[in-house]
Every structure is written in structure tokens, then in C-alpha cells.
Design a protein that fits this description.
Layout: H1 8-52, H2 57-63, H3 84-95, H4 100-103, E1 105-117, H5 121-144, H6 148-159, H7 161-222, H8 231-298, E2 304-306, E3 312-314, H9 318-330, H10 336-368, H11 374-378, H12 384-403, H13 414-422, H14 435-453, H15 457-470, E4 482-484, H16 486-493, H17 518-526, H18 538-548, H19 561-577, H20 580-583, H21 595-606, E5 611-612, E6 617-618, H22 624-627, H23 632-637, H24 641-646, E7 650-652, H25 659-665, H26 670-694, H27 697-711, H28 717-741, H29 760-773, H30 778-792, E8 821-822, E9 825-826, H31 831-839, H32 844-866, H33 870-875, E10 887-898, E11 914-922
Parallel strand pairs: 4-7
Antiparallel strand pairs: 1-10, 2-3, 5-6, 8-9, 10-11
Length: 923
């Protein structure tokens, strides 16, 4: 302007516009950056989806689970899969996306890693629930109807007190057996009394001989020659004295021998009588236990339990059921039909309560009356106190005889001999050694046993038929003999997923990025719905081993019918009781639709159990081919009976078809899992069969007959009546369990009275049902038919109603299954449904952990056996499956520099134009 230069205004304008232009440029660059960043996120997202699309097809088709495939080349590290393949795949997909937005960044690094594997039980459970929520409701309605499952659980809960009746019956059987044991011990003592009688006779004779020899010695001492005796007279006397002394010494030695034999025989009798006294004490303790068990079976209506949510629930007891039924009757809106049904139910419950109280009183009375028992009458003169006194006296006498040396006597010691004689044979052995008196008293007890024997024919026949059924070894599928090859998993993966020590950093499942990406990781974790476990069954596991061998138990050496029967009853009831405690937890089951129900349903219908080889499907409906975990021997054997009987244990990478049983028990031997489930299911059937069996007129008649027979042994009638009932219930439940475990489809969940086996109608059909479902030889079929015919012969099953003057009250039969129907069909108790109900009370955490093991096992079986190629078999190099690396989410971290157009400067090293993107994508 000063120099009047042209263009000054344009220059001024330029100086004024540049700042505005710079701001606009920055805004444009920022807009480009945001757009490019969104494009990068989209590229990462689509790349992640591409990686996730390569999921494990086996897991998806077999279990409905999604996890990224483990696709590393088997030649690399022998197929051990890491994150390398996932990262390379992600980078490939990311680089393939060449767009304007992605070109706006110069990528400096692109990392990817799998996170949240299925081995994490929370992740596995979340996936299971996602899957089962969509599929299970339809299955449950198809299986149980709209309210069938709730009805089943309600009926099971109402049946729980029956398990306490089982405990009472088991206590009675145990005590009744010990009552007979007293007589058995006395039989053994009888031989000792007889032996003592013989020894006492010899002892008496030896004493007489010794006493005579001592008298002769004293007489000889008194005949000592005087001072004027000749040498010949002295010599003759000395010879006579020496001979008399020698005779006395021989008699002394013989007496010592017989005295020692007398002491030994008395000690033997004392030992036998101690066994008798011990058994008597056990009997008294047994009756006390019976009384306590009877009181406990009645229960307390106010007995409550607090569940994990803090909610109080009333435990099902007999008293509680009575109170609940009375409250239902007090409602004003019940129909006449409902009222009649409730009144009948209340009458039955009150009768059960009265019976239990009677049993408790009878047990107390039996304990008080023990002193007047038949055994105590026998032992009035034969007891350990009498033996101890006799042994003490005989021992003292023996010591006195041994201490006196006759050779040291002088001719003036006749008084010493007299003193010795006065201390001999002072112990009165006449009562202890009186075998005639002992046998006479014992005969009275044996006569009662023989009389009882003649009155238990019907029950003995039933016990023998039941024994034949038990001998079929039908408690498990003999083809399923897999034992898991744990050595393979230990060597390659530090064990199965549930066995790994997750506290060790080498096997931790926690993502290494979780601390760095805390917010994102926490968001994922919050999405998982944690469910409190229902209960803990750890304490029960110890009881399974006892139950598992119960089917091979035999009655001991009882020789009488009554003895064999009681031993059979004791064995049977003990076997059933082994699995009964667990089922008391059914009282706390809630059948509401929820996560636990979805989880249990998924596990039950997805895993394999005992197999129907004809249809090539397991009882859960999973096909042998579809499971991919079955051993080749099982798949090929089909209906080959030879294969069934010749099947032996075999080491496999997976189970052959008893996976559901493993979920519940966790044993690494397929057979043992099945056996443990058998006895648990048996206890469930006992609870469900109690009311139908005890309401059946024929069963009540049989119970009355046995009660009359056993009452001859001094066992109160009400006790034997209870014992007979629970034995029949256990027998019925055992047959039901055998049939259910071998594929029966027609056993009602809640039976009507006429549905039971141990009645005239049901028993005739039993052999056919068993032969159809259980693998039996011709000899086994013939034996079973003969045993059943023995029960049927002469109308034995109908029994006498007046066997001891007591009549049987004819309760009305139960009518049907109390609404447990699907459509027009009665809801029956199949193997899979039974397992489903049992799973509802199992520890949820244990179920999920073992399910993780099963996934690992089946995938391994598929890779190493089922789908192994010829080249893999020749090379010995197989792909490995590791559940720890079955990732369900991909964690991506992409870093890059923004490609700017304008020279917008960065004010620090951490330029605002750089990108560091972290993203998680999963199924």
C-alpha cells in the first residue's frame, strides 16, 4: 500500500482465508478418519465372522455347540492346535478387504486370538442354555405333556415318606435276622455243652481215681512198721509204699490232664456264650433302632430346609402330608369327587402314622421284655458268669494240685494229703455240663422256628423267584464295558477338562487379555447367567460302591426257610437303602421352567445311555452312528447274543453308550456307572411303588401270613407286617427297575394297585416280560418259570387272611395314575425319563464338568478311531482335539497409521491419527 504495489488486497485476502481453510481441512481430515475407523471396524467384524464361520462341524452336529475349528496341519507339532491358525486366517480375511476406508490406514499389526473356550464351564453352560431354550420346550411337552413333569415331581414328592418306611423295614429285617442268630449261636453252644458234658464225666472219674489213690496212700502211711520190725518187713513196706505213691502220682497226673481239658472245654463254652450275649445285645440295640426309625418316619410337619436362594421349603414328611391333606379338605371349593379322594388319602396316611407309632411302642416293649425271652430262659443256667466262676474255681484247683509234690511227702504228712483232698472237686459243673437240660430248652426254640418254617412257603417262593431274577445280572448292559484311557489324556492334555488343576497358570482358562480389556471382558462375563447349584451329592458317592456289588450278594449259611428268607429280606432291603438317601432331595425339586430344567433336559437328551441294539439307538434317542463316540465292538455286535456274553472290559478313548450315567456318577468304568444308577433308580421305584403295593389286597394278605409266622419267634406282629410290606415293595421295585433298565416302555410312573407284578395277574406275565427284554439263556428261562410256578401253585400268592387271628383290612385299590397322562396314554417310566428326574436333583456344576469330559472323549474317539484315515493310521499322526482350545470368541487387536491428505501436524508421538482397535466377536 505504501509502495502502491498491485495485488496487495489479494495477498491480504489470502492471509485472512488461510486460517479458515486450515480449520476446514482439519475438519475434513477428522471426518475422513472417523469414516475410515468405522470402515476398519467393519472390516475387522466381517473378518471375524469369516473366521467364526469355520466352526467345528462335529461339535455343532453332535451337541449343537459352536466353537472355532482346530485346523492346524497335523504334521505341525503333531496336530496340537494353538492360536496360530486363527491369527493367520484373520489376517488373510482382513487383507482381502481392499476398500477406500481400509486403504485409509497403513496397518502396522493385526493380531487375533481365541478366547473363552468351551472348557470353561460357565461358557459351556451359557451355550447349552442358548441352544436348549430354543429346542427343549417342544421336547418336554412331547414327552410329558403340558403339566406332566410337574405332576410327576409332585407325585414323587408325595412318595418320599415311603423311603422312610423302607428304613424301618430294613431295621426290622436286620434285627429279626439277629434274633434268629441268637438261636444259631445257641446251636453252636450246644456242641460245646455236649463236649463239656463228656469232659466233666472224665474229670469226675479222674477225681474219684485220684481221691482213691490218695486215700490208699494215707492208709499206707498209717501202716508204717514199728521200731521192732524186721528188715524184711521194712523192705516189704517200702515196696508197698513206693507202689502206692507211684499210683497216686499217676492218678495226679491223669487228674491234671482231665482238669486242664475241663478248663479248656469250659473256656470254649464261655466263648460261645459270649457270642450269644453279644448277639443278644445287638438284638436289643436293633429294637431300639427300630423304634427310633419308626418315630423318624412319622416326621415333623414344621421341619423346614433353607435352599440356596434363602427361601424356606417344607420337607415332605408323613405328618406334613397329613396336615396338608386336612387343609385341602377344609377348603370350601372342592368337589365331591375330590373330597372322597382326599378322605381316602387321609385315611391311608393316618393308618400309616398309627402303624409306625404302634411299631415304635412295640419296639420299646420288646426291649423291656427281653429278660423273659426264650433265649434268656435257656441261658438262665448257661451264661458267661457261670462259666467264669467255674473256670476260676477249676484253675485254682489245678494250681493247688500242681503245687503239691507227692514225692516230697514224709510218712507223717497224711494231714497234708487230707488238706489237699478237701480242696479238690469243689466246682459244681453239673448245670453247665447238663446237655440234656440244654437241649430240652433249645428244642423249644427250634420247634417254634420249624413251625414258622411251615408258614413262610409263599414268601420263600417269592424270595427264590426274586433271587433268580437278580441272578440275571441285568443291572447293567454287559456290552458296555469301556474303561476310559486316562493315560492318553494325561500325557497329551494334563488330564480330562474336569480333572485339570485350573489354579495352575499352565492350564488356566482365563484370557491373558482380560486384565487389559477389563471393560469388554466384564461385559461378556455379565452376560452369563450364573445359577446356584441345587445340592451337593459328594457324601452319597461313598455309598455307591456298596450298592454296586449288591446284586452278587448271597444269603449266608442259613439252613431253615425262615432264616434264608430273613437273610434275603435283609440283603434286599440293605441293597435298596444304599441309594435311598439321595432321593429325599426330590422333595425340594421345582419343575418350573428355568435354566436348571433346560440344562438337565439338554444333557439327558443329548448324551447316550444304555443302548437298544435292535434300533441302533440309545434309550435317550441318540443313534449309535450319530453319537460318534461308540466303540466299534458295540456298533458291530447289534443283536449278537454271543457278543453280549463274551463282552469284556476294553480301554477306549470314549464311552460306548453309557455317557448319561457318567454325568451322574463320574466313574471311569462304564459298567460301574450303570450299576450305581441301577440302585439309585431302584430307590426311586421303591418310593413310587410303596402305596400301590401296600394297597393291593393280595400283597396285604401275604404280609399278614408272614407276620403271623414270624410272630412265633417273639417279633411283634405289626413289625413283621411292616417288614413283609416293605420287602414286597422292594421286590416289586427291583423287577420294575430291571425291566426299565432293559428298555421297558410300559411301567407306569405312578402305578395303580392292579399294575403290580406280585399278584396273581401280574406274576403270570412276568417271565414273558423278562425274557423279552433281558438276555437270558434257556436254563435261566426254565429256572425262572419254575420259580414263578412255585409261587403260583395252589394259589399261594393269595395267602391266608386269618393266619394268626388278625384280619386284613381291605383298602380300596388305587384308581389309575392320578392324572399322569399324555393325551389318552398313561405316562410310563422309561429309562431316559427316570434319568431326567434324577438329574433334576444332581449337582449342576458336576454335570457340566463331566459333560465337558464327554465332549473331549467323543471328539478324540472320532479323530483317532472313527474317522481316522489310512495315512493317519500308517503314520501314527492324528489331529488332536483339545477342549481348552475350543474357542467360542475371537479377540482381535489391529493397529495402524491414518493416511492423511493434508499436512496436519501431530503434537505428540501418540498421534490422534493412529488406530489401536480391540474387538471381541463370538457365537
Amino acid at each position: 500500500m505504501i509502495k502502491n504495489t498491485c495485488g496487495a488486497i489479494s495477498l491480504m485476502l489470502a492471509l485472512l482465508v488461510v486460517p479458515f481453510y486450515a480449520v476446514a481441512g482439519i475438519l475434513v481430515e477428522a471426518s475422513r478418519y472417523q469414516s475410515a475407523l468405522t470402515g476398519l471396524d467393519d472390516a475387522m467384524n466381517t473378518s471375524a465372522l469369516s473366521v467364526l464361520s469355520d466352526y467345528d462341524s462335529f461339535l455343532q452336529s453332535r451337541f449343537g455347540l459352536l466353537a472355532m475349528a482346530q485346523n492346524d496341519d497335523p504334521s505341525v507339532d503333531n496336530g496340537y492346535t494353538g492360536n496360530k491358525d486363527l491369527e493367520e486366517a484373520f489376517q488373510k480375511y482382513l487383507n482381502a478387504q481392499d476398500t477406500t476406508d481400509t486403504r485409509s490406514f497403513r496397518t502396522t499389526s493385526a493380531a487375533a486370538a481365541g478366547v473363552y473356550p468351551l472348557a470353561d464351564t460357565d461358557i459351556l453352560k451359557a451355550q447349552v442354555l442358548d441352544y436348549s431354550t430354543l429346542t427343549l420346550p417342544t421336547v418336554l411337552v412331547s414327552e410329558f405333556g403340558s403339566t406332566g413333569l410337574q405332576d410327576i415331581i409332585k407325585e414323587v414328592q408325595n412318595s418320599i415318606p415311603g423311603l422312610k418306611f423302607l428304613k424301618v423295614g430294613s431295621s426290622i429285617a436286620d434285627t429279626a435276622t439277629k434274633t434268629l442268630d441268637v438261636t444259631k449261636k445257641l446251636e453252636k453252644a450246644k456242641d460245646s455243652v455236649k463236649s463239656l458234658n463228656e469232659k466233666t464225666t472224665s474229670y469226675d472219674s479222674a477225681h474219684s481215681a485220684f481221691d482213691d489213690a490218695l486215700n490208699e496212700l494215707k492208709k499206707t502211711m498209717g501202716e508204717k512198721p514199728g521200731e521192732n520190725a524186721t528188715v524184711d518187713e521194712l523192705d516189704a513196706y517200702n515196696k508197698r509204699y513206693e507202689q502206692t505213691l507211684e499210683n497216686a502220682q499217676k492218678a495226679k497226673k491223669e487228674y491234671e490232664k482231665k482238669l486242664q481239658a475241663e478248663i479248656k472245654s469250659t473256656e470254649s463254652l464261655n466263648k460261645d456264650l459270649k457270642d450269644v450275649a453279644k448277639t443278644q445285645d445287638e438284638v436289643l440295640d436293633g429294637w431300639v433302632s427300630v423304634g427310633k426309625d419308626a418315630v423318624n418316619a412319622v416326621g415333623d410337619a414344621k421341619n423346614t430346609k433353607v435352599d440356596t436362594s434363602g427361601e424356606e421349603t417344607t420337607v415332605t414328611t408323613l405328618t406334613g402330608q397329613i396336615d396338608a391333606t386336612q387343609k385341602e379338605l377344609e377348603k370350601k371349593d372342592i368337589t365331591a369327587e375330590e373330597k372322597t379322594k382326599l378322605e381316602q388319602q387321609l385315611k391311608q396316611l393316618q393308618q400309616q402314622e398309627a402303624d409306625l407309632k404302634t411299631i415304635s411302642n412295640a419296639a420299646d416293649a420288646t426291649v423291656k421284655a427281653a429278660d423273659s425271652s426264650q433265649a434268656n430262659k435257656i441261658l438262665k443256667d448257661y451264661n458267661t458268669d457261670s462259666c467264669s466262676t467255674a473256670i476260676s474255681g477249676l484253675t485254682e484247683e489245678l494250681n493247688r494240685v500242681k503245687d503239691m509234690d507227692l514225692s516230697d511227702l514224709t510218712l507223717d504228712d497224711a494231714d497234708k494229703i487230707t488238706k489237699l483232698q478237701e480242696g479238690l472237686h469243689l466246682t459244681d459243673m453239673s448245670k453247665l455240663s447238663d446237655s440234656d437240660n440244654f437241649n430240652s430248652l433249645l428244642k423249644e426254640a427250634n420247634d417254634l422256628i420249624n413251625k414258622a418254617d411251615s408258614n413262610v412257603t409263599s414268601f420263600s417262593s417269592i424270595a427264590e423267584a426274586l433271587s433268580t431274577i437278580m441272578s440275571l445280572s441285568a443291572s447293567y448292559d454287559p456290552k458296555l464295558q469301556s474303561v476310559i484311557n486316562t493315560e492318553y489324556y494325561d500325557q497329551n492334555f494334563a488330564g480330562l477338562p474336569s480333572k485339570k488343576d485350573r489354579s495352575n497358570s499352565a492350564y488356566t482358562l482365563e484370557s491373558p487379555y482380560e486384565q487389559k480389556d477389563a471393560a469388554l471382558a466384564q461385559a461378556d462375563l455379565d452376560a452369563i447367567d450364573f445359577v446356584n447349584e441345587i445340592m451337593d451329592l459328594t457324601a452319597w458317592q461313598g455309598g455307591v460302591s456298596t450298592a454296586a456289588s449288591a446284586d452278587t450278594s448271597k444269603a449266608d449259611d442259613a439252613k431253615t426257610k425262615i432264616g434264608k428268607l430273613l437273610n434275603s429280606m435283609k440283603s434286599m432291603l440293605s441293597m435298596v437303602t444304599a441309594g435311598a438317601n439321595i432321593l429325599s432331595n426330590l422333595s425340594n425339586i421345582k419343575a418350573d421352567i428355568g435354566d436348571h430344567l433346560y440344562l438337565v433336559g439338554y444333557l439327558n437328551y443329548t448324551t447316550t445311555n444304555r443302548t437298544d441294539y435292535a434300533s441302533k439307538k440309545t434309550m435317550s434317542g441318540v443313534s449309535i452312528k450319530g453319537s460318534n463316540g461308540l466303540a466299534a465292538e458295540v456298533a458291530k455286535s447289534e443283536n449278537n447274543l454271543t457278543a453280549i456274553f463274551d463282552a469284556k472290559e476294553e480301554t477306549n478313548y470314549s464311552f460306548c453308550g453309557a455317557e448319561t450315567e457318567y454325568l451322574l456318577i463320574g466313574n471311569e468304568h462304564e459298567r460301574e456307572n450303570q450299576k450305581a444308577i441301577f440302585y439309585t433308580m431302584l430307590a426311586l421305584r421303591v418310593a413310587l411303588d410303596y402305596k400301590p403295593v401296600t394297597s393291593n389286597v393280595e400283597a396285604r394278605a401275604l404280609s399278614a401270613g408272614l407276620a403271623g409266622a414270624l410272630s412265633l419267634l417273639g417279633i411283634p406282629y405289626k413289625m413283621t407286617d411292616m417288614l413283609a410290606k416293605v420287602f414286597l415293595v422292594a421286590a416289586e421295585a427291583y423287577v420294575d427297575t430291571v425291566l426299565i433298565c432293559n428298555g421297558a416302555q410300559d411301567i407306569p410312573f405312578i402305578k395303580a394297585s392292579e399294575d403290580i407284578h406280585f399278584c396273581a395277574k401280574g406274576l403270570s406275565k412276568l417271565p414273558g416280560k423278562l425274557q423279552k427284554l433281558v438276555a437270558m439263556t434257556d436254563d435261566q428261562k426254565k429256572t425262572l418259570q419254575e420259580k414263578v410256578k412255585q409261587v403260583e401253585a395252589g394259589g399261594v400268592i393269595l395267602g391266608g387272611l386269618e393266619s394268626d387271628g388278625k384280619g386284613v383290612e381291605d383298602l380300596p385299590n388305587l384308581k389309575g395314575s392320578n392324572g399322569l397322562y399324555v393325551g389318552d396314554n398313561k405316562l410310563c417310566m422309561t429309562y431316559s425319563r427316570s434319568m431326567f428326574v434324577m438329574m433334576l436333583i444332581w449337582n449342576e456344576k458336576d454335570l457340566v464338568k463331566r459333560f465337558a469330559d464327554l465332549i473331549e472323549m467323543e471328539a478324540t474317539q472320532k479323530n483317532l478311531v472313527n474317522d481316522a484315515s489310512v495315512s493317519q493310521k500308517l503314520s501314527g499322526i492324528y489331529p488332536k482335539f483339545d477342549l481348552d482350545k475350543s474357542y467360542t470368541a475371537l479377540r482381535m487387536n489391529v493397529k495402524g497409521d491414518f493416511v492423511s491428505v493434508l499436512p496436519v501436524p501431530s503434537l505428540s508421538r501418540n498421534s490422534v491419527w493412529k488406530a489401536n482397535r480391540v474387538m471381541y466377536r463370538g457365537y
